Amino acid sequence: MDKSTRFPTSLSGYEIEGLIGIDASRLVPLYQGCSDYVVLERGEPPNAATAKEEFESFPPNRTEADKFIFGVKAIDGEFVGLLACDRNYPRVECWWIALFMIDKALRGRGLGRTLCDDFFRWLKSQNVKWVELGVITENEQALRFWQRQGFKPMRTAGPVSIGAKRHMVQVLGRPL
C-alpha cells in the first residue's frame, strides 16, 4: 500500500486519495453508507473491524506492496467510495479489483461508471492489459453494473466464506 499513489479523476467535486492501514477508521462511515452490501456479503452490519480487514487481506502470494486502496473523497472531506485492488494478480499485467463501493445515497448517478473509466485509463497508462474481479452471485445489481463496464464472465468460484456467509463468486474480466 502506498498513500502517495492515486489516479486522476474527471469527477467534479471529488478527489482520489491513496489509503493505508491507519486510514481504516476514516472509512467506517462509508461502510455504514454501504451497509446493504456489507450485510449481503457478510451477513452482519459493518463495524470498525470490517473497514480494517480490507487493509489486512491479500490474495495468495501477494503482499502489502501489491495492494492499492483508493478512497473517493467528496469536497466536504467525507469518503463516498472505495476502490481496493491488487496489482499483477492473478498474473502479470492484470489487476484484481477486490472491492468497489459507492455510498448507497450516491448510486445511480454515474459516479461509479466515471470512476471506473478514470481508473481504467490510469491502469492503461501503467501498461496493465487486463482487469478481473469477483461478484458474489446474490449481488445481481453489481453483476449488471460490471457487465455494463465491459466485463464478461470467466468462471464461477467457491463456495467462499465471508463473515458469517458462504458464497459462490462469478469471476469477470475485461481487456483494457
CATH class: Alpha Beta
Q: Which strands sit side by side, in order, in the main sheet?
A: 1-2-3-4-5-7-6
Strand fraction equals: 25-35%
Low-confidence stretches: none
- What's the average pLDDT? 94
What is the distance, rounded to the nearest whole angstrom, between the alpha carbons of the first and last residues? 23 Å
Instruction: Give the CATH superfamily.
Output: Gcn5-related N-acetyltransferase (GNAT)
Under the CATH scheme, the architecture is: 3-Layer(aba) Sandwich
Shape: globular
Largest sheet geometry? 7 strands, mixed
Classification by helices and strands: alpha+beta
Domain module count: 1
Report Rg.
15 Å
Number of strands: 7
- The H/E string reads EHHHEEEHEHEE
Task: Report what the structure shows.
- By secondary structure, this protein is an alpha+beta fold.
- The protein has a single domain (14-175), classed as Aminopeptidase.
- The chain contains 5 helices and 7 strands, in the order βαααβββαβαββ.
- It has helices at 28-33, 35-42, 48-56, 111-125, 140-148, and strands at 14-19, 67-74, 79-86, 94-102, 130-136, 152-162, 165-175.
- The longest helix is centred in the C-terminal third of the chain and has 15 residues, at 111-125.
- It is globular, with a radius of gyration of 15 Å.
- The two termini are 23 Å apart.
- The model has no long low-confidence stretch (mean pLDDT 94).
